[in-house]
TrEMBL record:
This is DUF8055 domain-containing protein. InterPro entries: DUF8055. It comes from Natronoglomus mannanivorans. Residues 3-116 form the DUF8055 domain.
């Protein structure tokens, strides 16, 4: 693990810790944000950073696997916050392409996992508008 190795190792350890400490009964919107912004989003962005700007930083097989496993762990935890058990097997490349296209980690996670479902998202959005207008 060369240039990004220590960062990837730290992400992998944090993903393992988050997975170990996850309690579905205690899951909150703050957890969703954390798993996406501080977890999966960081893993995906590291990949984007290494692959853009005219330089193609090579990842070893172990680095790429660790990065992908960490990202998938956080996407699984994100889904579990919505009560959905998911076995994430996404590539960091497909996630990076979506993140570059959407520029939003929540949209990226929703497109990859299909969680929350589109109907729930629309319903929650309407509920928020109703509460805000009161």
């Amino acid at each position: 693990m060369e240039r990004y190795g220590s960062h990837i190792a730290a992400l992998a350890r944090r993903a393992e810790r988050d997975h170990r400490d996850f309690d579905p009964a205690e899951a909150s919107p703050a957890d969703v944000t954390n798993y996406l912004q501080e977890g999966a989003g960081q893993a995906i962005w590291l990949y984007v950073e290494a692959r853009t700007g005219g330089r193609l930083v090579p990842f070893s097989e172990a680095e790429l696997s660790a990065l992908q496993d960490a990202m998938n762990t956080w996407l699984e935890l994100y889904a579990r916050c919505y009560g959905v058990d998911l076995e994430a097997e996404f590539t960091v490349r497909e996630a990076a392409e979506l993140l570059v296209d959407t520029r939003n980690i929540r949209d990226t996670a929703q497109l990859l996992t299909r969680v929350p479902g589109r109907r729930a998202e629309v319903r929650d959005s309407k509920r928020e508008r109703t509460v805000d207008s009161k």
